[in-house]
Design brief:
Length: about 130
């Protein structure tokens, strides 16, 4: 079992930056792929970025590539999302997620492949 807790959300002006963190408890986090998703009001949850178990492979949604950076520290059991040059359309609840018994990013854009989810942290970007 893995429990995930996000932090770092807040309100920022367009062009600003935020760094989201996800703290994992449970010994299964370090050996599995993880990801960030987001959901805006009235929209379905969408993929943002995924990372394999050791950080060697990454994948981003087209909408955030070049602005967001996903990373992890398996010694600290944390997942992070550095968000730069934020836009109003980035406003959403952001969720971290972890897979169970799977190390790589294949299929990582599909939320159905994730077994563990955090409660989310709100990001609001004003114009």
């Amino acid at each position: 079992q893995v429990q995930l807790t996000e932090s770092g959300g807040g309100q920022v002006q367009a062009g600003g930056s935020l760094r989201l963190s996800c703290e994992a408890s449970g010994r299964d986090f370090g050996g599995n792929a993880a990801a960030w998703f987001r959901q805006s009001p009235g929209k379905e949850r969408e993929f943002v970025a995924t990372i394999n178990w050791n950080g060697a492979y990454l994948r981003y949604a087209d909408s955030v590539r070049g602005r967001f950076t996903i990373s992890r520290d398996n010694h600290q059991n944390t997942l992070a999302l550095q968000m730069d040059n934020l836009k109003p359309e980035d406003t959403a609840m952001y969720y971290c997620a972890a897979r169970a018994h799977y190390t790589e990013i294949v299929g990582g854009m599909d939320e159905r492949n994730y077994a563990y989810w955090g409660q989310g942290t709100q990001v609001t970007v004003s114009s």
